[in-house]
């Protein structure tokens, strides 16, 4: 039988380590220092499809944002090397093989939604923060720039 004291001590230790993990994931959730002057104006709110898809300035600025805010978990330039988090370049890749243009747009829209939702609300499992939320920190034009960047980042 477990001694009640050691059980509560174990719980306390578990609580402590969860706090440490959470604190680490939540650290540095701040707006990156980036010049967005080259970004075209977009309609307010969250669009259904990336309004900055195919925009070279957005992809370039997205790369700067990425390396300041996401690379520590998702790898430098999203290269997926030795990173503990998923390779983001594959999100929506399968859409390119969809022949029907309307269906392809729907496929891309699903992928965009998933990307935006992941960034805005982060990733939590069993109360542990695997990825912190950026809602209210990164505005739509920054998140869409990130999306444009990961879509065009070279694959190794
Ligand atoms: C503290 C580490 C950390 C940071 C910083 C981080 N992420 Fe994540 N991210 C993760 C982890 C871990 C997962 C996988 C978690 C899961 O699926 O439960 C993930 C998942 C995702 C997913 C879903 C990927 C998939 O295939 O399931 C997207 C999209 C994403 N992150 C985008 C970003 C972007 C963009 C940034 C920068 C704004 C960012 N993340 C910053 C750790 C991080």
Automatic annotation (TrEMBL):
Keyword Cell inner membrane found: no
Protein name listed in UniProt: Cytochrome c domain-containing protein
Keyword Heme (UniProt): yes
Any one GO molecular-function label of the UniProt entry: electron transfer activity
SUPFAM superfamilies with a match to the protein in the record: Cytochrome c
TM segment ranges: none
UniProt source species: Hydrogenophaga pseudoflava
Signal peptide range: 1-25
Pfam families: Cytochrome_CBB3
InterPro entries linked to this entry: Cyt_c-like_dom, Cyt_c-like_dom_sf
Annotated keywords: Heme, Iron, Metal-binding, Signal
Domain Cytochrome c: 57-154
